């Protein structure tokens, strides 16, 4: 009887310690997360994560309107009319292909997830 009471008491103590450990662990994670968010370098990186692809997309749209290339001396030279349309078509076909492949990978991942 004494052994059972001692085991029950030890189990209660272990449960209390696990609850405290979980609480303090969550507190440490929260403090680390807030310190990372407070960092100006992290904030700049987070903004660049969204800003850089948007800038790249805007430059692509500008290039699709007036396709140019750098001649090596810092000058932007426009392609001839026939070449410009060829490059526009190839660029759009490439982006459509990338989009289709991305969708197929996502669908395949969903199917694998459903099987599991």
Helix content estimate: over 70%
Radius of gyration, whole Å: 29 Å
Mean pLDDT level: 88
Q: Order of SSEs, N→C?
A: HHEEH
Order of strands, main sheet, comes to 1-2
Q: Could you give a short account of the major beta sheet?
A: 2 strands, antiparallel
Short précis:
Keywords: Membrane, Transmembrane, Transmembrane helix. The protein has 3 helices and 2 strands, in the order ααββα. It has 116 residues and is mostly helical.
Please provide a written account of the structure:
By secondary structure, the protein is mainly alpha-helical. It has 2 domains: 1-38; 51-116. It has 3 helices and 2 strands; from the N terminus they run H-H-E-E-H. Strand 1 and strand 2 form a beta hairpin. It is elongated and about 95 Å long.
List keywords for this structure.
mainly alpha; 116 residues
List the helices and strands and how they pair.
Blueprint: H1 2-38, H2 40-65, E1 68-70, E2 76-78, H3 81-115
Antiparallel strand pairs: 1-2
